[in-house]
Amino acid sequence: MLLVVIATSYLGACVLLASCQSKLIWFPGKPGSTTPRDAGLEFEDLTLTTLDGEQLHAWFLPARGEARGALLVSHGNAGTIEDRLDIARFFVESRVSVLLYDYRGYGRSTGSPSEQGTYADGRAAWKALVEQRGFAPARILLYGESLGGGIAVELATEVKAAGLILHDTFSSLDDAAAFHYPWLPVRWLLRTHYDNMGKIGRVGAPLLVIHSPDDEVIPFEQGQKLFGAAAEPKEFLVTAGSHNGPGYLGNAEWRARVRAFVERALP
Questions:
Q1: N or C, where is the chain less crowded by C-beta within 10 Å?
Q2: Would you kindly state where each structural domain of the chain is located, as residue ranges?
Q3: What is the CATH number of domain 2-265?
Q4: What is this structure's pTM?
Q5: What angle separates helix 252-265 from helix 85-92, to the nearest 10 degrees?
Q6: How far is CA 249 from CA 58, 85, 132, 240, in A?
Q7: Mean pLDDT, rounded, for 175-181
């Protein structure tokens, strides 16, 4: 009888994961009232249209001083662009203009998130920087934070960017899910993959991987794995602290390392 209960519970968990995995993958933040102006940053409020007709909320923050280039930020899972103003400030003060955008279903953006949908969102943001803002592809850095690393890696295989920065990014969603649910056959059940490992070798832009050994959400080993599969030129910045901690922004030496990468990529 006990075995029947265990088997039934296990099967139920598998069915739940298979049927509700979208709710377990994406955690869209709701619209708030904060703007870059509240953080003392200049900005323009934008609406970007994707090829499939979704309307994405975005902010363009001009560099302080003469711009070296631009940074396209694909942010992490929870929250919205309102929660990424610390990242924007660092790069704006490094003379890099920043485009923050919310994926479909996040914040004020329309639609519902999906793997292919978020890829389309990244393409729309890239197009806005190139066609509307006039930045040459060779003057644009791609930045992927956690889940956003999946969008940034995909985009980096499609365009010729100045560089790619991956902050606390998984090797694949399959690997990340297997870490959190080791007792479930997640690799068989997942329909969403964000297979960074399968793509990173095709990225020709200079790469900076940033990861903390203390990361409890995306294991440090996944950052190492991703870095190992990437082509040169590449570098790895080891930080400290939790997944949602300040990371490199909380340490002067680490900030200097990131700034030096930016200056090499955007001379």
A1: N
A2: 2-265
A3: 3.40.50.1820
A4: 0.92
A5: 60
A6: 22, 12, 30, 11
A7: 83
